[in-house]
Amino acid sequence: MRKIPALLVLLAVASCTSTPQAPKPAPSTAAGAAVTLTDADRAAVEGALRARLTPTATIRTMIAQSDAGGVTVCGYVNSGSGDTPFIGMLVEGAFIVTDLGGPTERTIAVQKACHGRGIYI
After folding, report:
1. How many helices, marked H, and strands, marked E, lie in the chain?
2. How much is the pTM?
3. How far, in Å, CA of 69 to CA of 73, rounded?
4. What gap in Å lies between CA 53 and CA 102, rounded to an integer?
């Protein structure tokens, strides 16, 4: 009689296994080389963001990567209601804002777009 409960306990313990944690994803292979922005590049990024948001917007972070598509710049801008992520392209000395965060879904989408380019902001 004692063997059946002992066997059930042994079977229950033997069936318990831990699930291995998935490794963190490696940076995208689409990522290119880090780019050091010139003062003119920074001014172009700041000007485009301020024109789109408010003239008093503060740019908190700016990270650039170069790949086959050009130079992508990601970062955070604060226009008075908290930091918001942005992504855009530097094209012939001008900056084109591709997307800005906002509601949670937009913020996540912008961060994922940056991560897809190998930029972790």
Report:
1. 3, 5
2. 0.71
3. 12
4. 12
* CB-based contact 120:114 (threshold 8 Å): yes
Query: Which three-class secondary structure state does DSSP give residue 7?
Result: helix
Q: Which pair of structure tokens corresponds to residue 68?
A: 């086959």
Residues contacting residue 107 through CB under 8 Å, at least 6 positions apart: 84, 85, 101
Residue 74 amino acid letter: C
CA torsion sign for 99, 108, 84, 64 is negative
Give just the sign of the alpha carbon dihedral 47, 48, 54, 60: negative
- Residue 85 CB partners (closer than 8 Å, separation 6+): 74, 75, 76, 100, 101, 107, 110, 111, 114, 121
Contact 82, 60 (CB under 8 A): no
Shortest CA distance to 28 belongs to which of 75, 69, 76, 77? 69
Q: What is the pLDDT of residues 30-59, one digit of tens each?
A: 557 899 999 999 999 999 999 999 999 999
44/91 Cα distance (integer angstroms): 10
